[in-house]
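Dear H.,

Thanks for agreeing to be a second pair of eyes. The structure we're designing against is below in token form, covering all 98 positions.
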């Protein structure tokens, strides 16, 4: 399984919606598929990308996989955005000193 950068995974609106749903509680593929206008195989593919990015985990519950948010997986996206924020603050500070 090739790794995916979290920002690449977050670039898709369906995957963002899946993450919003998982934020409230862990769900199976079937639970998720019933909430979205895409097929169950499509939801599975989106979950695979989210797993490759480290944003969700899957655990077995009987014959189902239950998906849940993996908060530490968002570190890469957070670091990328914080770099811009830090640089922006530095520029603002330099402008304020002028």
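And this is the sequence the design step returned. I haven't edited it by hand at all.
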């Amino acid at each position: 399984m090739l790794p995916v950068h979290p920002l690449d995974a977050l670039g898709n609106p369906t995957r963002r919606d899946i993450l919003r749903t998982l934020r409230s509680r862990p769900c199976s593929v079937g639970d998720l598929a019933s909430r979205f206008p895409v097929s169950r195989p499509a939801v599975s593919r989106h979950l695979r990308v989210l797993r490759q990015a480290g944003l969700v985990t899957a655990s077995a519950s009987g014959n189902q996989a239950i998906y849940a948010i993996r908060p530490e997986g968002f570190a890469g996206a957070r670091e990328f955005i914080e770099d811009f924020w830090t640089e922006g603050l530095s520029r603002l500070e330099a402008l304020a000193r002028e």
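Two observations from my side: Strands lie at 27-28, 56-61, 64-69. Helices lie at 6-10, 13-24, 29-33, 40-52, 75-97.

Warmly,
E.
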